[in-house]
Amino acid sequence: MIKKIKELEKISRLLEPTAHERKEARKKVITYSEGFLNDIEKTKAYNVTPDKGIALLESPISEKPINIDKAIKLIQKNVDFPGLNPASGGYLGYIPGGGIYYSALGDYLAAVFNRYAGVFYAGFGAVRMENMLIQWMAEVFGYSSPSSLKRAKVAGNLTSGGSIANLMAVVTARDSKKISSALIPKSVIYFTKQVHHSIEKAIRIAGLKECVIRHVPMDERYKMNAGELEKLIYKDKKDGLNPFLVIASAGTTDTGTIDPLEEIGKIAKKNNLWYHIDAAYGGFFILTDEGKQKLKGIELSDSLTADPHKGLFLPYGMGVILVKDAQKLRESHYYQAQYLQDALFESEEMSPADLSPELTKHFRGLRLWLPLKLMGVKPFRACLEEKLLLAKYFHSEIQKLGFEVSHEPELSVVTYRWIPKKGDANAFNNKLMKEVVADGRIFISSTLLDKKFTLRFACLSFRTHLKQVDLLLKILKEKVKMLSPS
Question: Could you list the residue range(s) of the whole structural domain that residue 145 is in?
Answer without folding.
Answer: 108-374
